[in-house]
User: What shape does this take?
Amino acid sequence: MSNFEKGFAIYERIKLSVREKIDSGQLKPGDRIPSELKLASLFQASRMTANRALKELTAEGRIIRIQGVGSFVAKPKPDVALLEIKSISEEIHNWGGVHSADVILLKEESASKSIARKMEIKTGDRVFHSILVHKDENIPVQYSERFINPRVAPEYLEQDFTKITPSEYLLEIAPVQEAEHTVEAILPIKEMQKKLKIKPGEPCILLKRRTWSFDLVATCSIIVYPGSKYKLSGKFKRE
Assistant: This one.
């Protein structure tokens, strides 16, 4: 034991040991972590102490625990673009996944007072409304709801969004002049929990986004990510 480690409680030394093996690459994503009994024996600690260390590593997102199976090194949370507008299919591809999508809603509607205000149009003006659930290897990773100005994308409803994402289509026909982002932590409603296949009480990241194209508000979007799986990141460079 190093002099540095001597200053820590036993459960903290167990955590440090596991973290060090993960950070050094000795333990890779998906590798099994030694059991509570083995850790307790290695560190001459109680099983309760080893359990506390593993619980805290789980809460930090470093490991995952499967009841009756064991503990494993968690995959790093992929960075999801915040300031840069990318297609979710590109993001999933970049972290080595396989993208697919379920189209929940795709239709024309009359703008409500709230949507009209956000899109800077009149109440009752027509808007296109879409809801998609994006998946990585058939696991839901994003709930995406958009309102689109038909003047910017008149053929939006004619697209097959199981083959091309709304972002890919919109970025191709209506380059973004300006974007506005708001990020919140939320507890999603039951319907959203069901679509994302997450447990009640699991927090999510909510990204609200407005974009402008051709001097018009082009889109007003609500995008939700399961908070336990993803993190938002952004980079800004002043020209």
Helices lie at 3-6, 10-24, 36-42, 47-59, 88-94, 113-119, 166-173, 190-196. The chain has two domains: 3-73, 79-233. Residues 1-5 have pLDDT under 50 and may be disordered. The CA atoms of residues 153 and 170 lie 7 Å apart.
